[in-house]
Amino acid sequence: MYSEKVMDHFTNPRNVGELPDADAIGETGSFKCGDTMKLYLKVKDDRIEDIKFQTFGCGAAIASSSMLTEMVKGRTIDEAARVTNQDVADQLGGLPPLKLHCSNLAADALQNAIGDYKSRQHSR
Amino acid sequence: MQSRLVYMDHGATTPVRKEVFDYMAPYFQEQYSNPSSLHAPGREVRQAVEEAREKTASALGANEDEIYFTAGGTESNNIALRGVAKKRTKPGHIITSSVEHHAVLDVCKNLENEGHRVKYLPVNQYGRVDPESLKEAIEDDTFMISIMAANNEIGTLQPVRELGAVAREKGILFHTDAVQVVGQLPFNVADLNADFLSLSAHKFNGPKGIGALYMRKGIKIDPLYRGGSQERKLRPGTENVPGIIGLGKAIELAVSEIPEKKKKLEHLRDRLIKGLRDIGEVYLNGHPKERLPGNVNVSFQYIEGESVLLSLDMEGIAASSGSACSSGSLEPSHVLSAMGLDHSMAHGSVRFSLGYGNSEEDIDYVLEKASPIVERLRSMSPTYHAR
Question: Measuring CA to CA, which of A42, B27, B231, B377 is 20 to 30 A from A59?
Answer without folding.
Answer: A42
